[in-house]
Amino acid sequence: MDGFRFASSHANARLMAKDDRNRLLELLGSFGDLCGPVGMPGGAHRYQPVRKPSEIAPDCLRTLLPPKKILYPPTDELLEFTADGGFRTKEEATPGRRILFGLHPCDIHAVITLDQVFSGRYDEPRYFARRQRTAIVGTDCWPDEQCFCHSTKTDFVDKGFDLFLTDLGEQYFVRIGTAFGDDIVRAAGDLFRPVEPAAIDLYKERTNRRHAAFSHSVEMIDLPQIFELDYDSQIWENLGSKCFSCGSCSAVCPTCYCYDVFDQVNLDGRTGSRFRTWDSCLTNSFARVADGRNFRQERATRIKLRYYHKQIAFVEQYGRPSCVGCGRCIVACPAEISVIDVLNAIFREKVVR
Amino acid sequence: MKEPAAGVRADPLRPEKARIIRIQPLPQGFKLFQVRFDDEQLNWEFDFKPGQFLMLSVIGVGEAPFAIASPPSRQGLLELCIHRAGRVTTALHRLKENAVIGIRGPYGNGYPIEAMQKSDVLLLAEGLYANALRPLLWYILDTRKDFGQVTLVMAVDSLPDLPLHDEFLSLLDREDITCRVCPSPAQAGAGAPSLIERVIAELRPQKVVGQNTYAVMAGEADHFPPLWDHLLQRGISKDKILFSLHRKMRCGIGKCGHCSIGYKHTCLDGPIFSYWDAQNLPEVI
């Protein structure tokens, strides 16, 4: 292999004028059904399929619900059944390709987490049928006071995207993550141009300024051990008395995946479907079994489970917490419970004797 | 885009069509269901370990997890001993013989039967929970030469009220198992010993070689600690003290989240746990 060297990583990066953004969105739309953040009255953003690329709000920081709703819909028809014929897998009607635009690093990490959750000993074919025909065009972002992805180490991605756009002011620094991303670049004509050294300086400078822009920091490294040692902390009782058990935090979480299942019979009384629907471990019925026994009757035990599962159990199972620091649960919580405050309190508060 | 992982993906959530062959009413709101798959081949391919469970669908009503009550040594049909408790089991109890149901599985870890071979086995049960030991008990008796001393100790308040009590009584005549059934407490009323205390009292005179013994217990997990203490005193390792836990389950395959205990899923990592697990997992008791 003497003399062999990899092509400069510039081969997998391009520059694009910011003014050409709509041209890029039009181009992406020609590769599949485009989804992205769309502004709503009141200032919030919704992640959804769009008909026209111009509907997309490209500078949106945080959508109300995360893009998981496209890959893992809130309600999903799993099976069809007949009274004497048994069960049949429900096939999805539209096998078209989807282009998810505007996922930030936290959202991309969340998709990688869902990939792990839905594979393993049992693969979830419905999720992967959608996932395999989904392309991701990520965009970087500027943190607000609810963001803490630098603490969860999810503020940067080096995989999980087909294209990734970093805002350098007048232009985008475009990283190409897959051969499909490269297909898009090659189809784009003069939309992209080669990276020049000055742009790399700008990219470095942007990265450093962004690192410094986070207003909160949470210690995550020793968290599992501290959590276990102070498992009976008073914190959970206090949180239990504040929490409404509404499950908003689960609905808006990009990595929450727990679901409930229900059967619905058609009017003929002979046929019907089995559905799954997003569930939340905060609801009273989550661990309640048929004889009325509830393994987590107290709210404090349910909110503790949520934190334990996201911050501890995931580390045990997949090597990192499932929380990606997106801050959606902080925005959504009607009781104003903040994951940043809770995690810091676990470290700060003295053990109750 | 995400590349496909491996080959064709079967749907792990799709139940196979099955049928109730026979229903035997039992005391205390239990029924014993014998079920078979419509696809004859499946009846012989359905391979499981004692202690594993399956997901049973009552069509149009819902799906729930149930322990397999028959041993894998008796292939060809599955037995399920089911208490009428909630929506699915109430609908199931209304079904007649030959009714179509859905079954998928088996799921869970089951008892570590390979590791248990050549060991002595203590089977300990409080009350109605004795049924949970049935698949393991009959598996051991069907493959008797693979195991050492086998001892069954169960405490019940009223023997005729125990589902399948005649089956347990039939063990008293066998010479390959020491069977102690204590049907009524030594004293009644307040201050009477609990079922677990009676199990311990009955266990006390039994000879137990700690290092070579597995203890398998069936009962309410929060009643276990005194029995655990006793078994530890007899020299049994914490990872050889086994029991089955029950939790709400919607999928059985580690996705729906309902059965989590600490960092484990009852459906994947259980339902059989050891005292060592219980000591290291929150929420077991």
Concise overview:
Chain A has 353 residues and is of the alpha+beta class. In chain A, 33% of the residues lie in helices and 20% in strands.
Descriptive overview:
The complex is a heterodimer of chains A (353) and B (285). Chain A folds into two domains: 9-67 and 91-212, no CATH class; 223-348, no CATH class. Chain A is an alpha+beta fold. Chain A has twelve helices and twelve strands. In chain A, the strands form two sheets. An eight-stranded mixed β-sheet of chain A has the order 3-2-6-7-8-9-1-10, with helices on both faces. Chain A has helices spanning 21-31, 68-71, 105-117, 125-131, 179-187, 197-212, 223-229, 235-242, 248-252, 299-318, 328-332, 339-348; strands at residues 13-17, 33-39, 45-49, 75-82, 86-89, 98-103, 134-139, 163-167, 171-176, 192-193, 259-265, 271-278. In chain A, strand 11 (259-265) and strand 12 form a beta hairpin. The mean pLDDT of chain A is 91. Chain B is globular and about 50 Å long. In chain B, strand 3 (53-58) and strand 4 (62-67) form a beta hairpin. In chain B, the strands form three sheets. In chain B, strands 4-3-6-1-2-5 form a six-stranded antiparallel β-sheet. In chain B, strands 9-8-7-10-11-14 form a six-stranded mixed β-sheet. Residues 3-8 of chain B have low confidence and may be disordered. Chain B is 21% helix and 28% strand. Chain B has helices at 40-45, 87-94, 113-116, 134-142, 165-169, 195-203, 225-233, 266-269, 275-280, and strands spanning 16-26, 30-37, 53-58, 62-67, 78-83, 100-107, 120-126, 150-155, 178-182, 213-218, 241-244, 260-261, 264-265, 272-274. Chain B is of the alpha/beta class. Chain B has nine helices and 14 strands. Chain B has two domains: 16-107, Elongation Factor Tu (Ef-tu), domain 3; 113-244, Rossmann fold (3-Layer(aba) Sandwich), CATH 3.40.50. Chains A and B meet through strand 4, strand 5, helix 4, strand 11 and strand 12 of A and strand 4 and helix 2 of B.
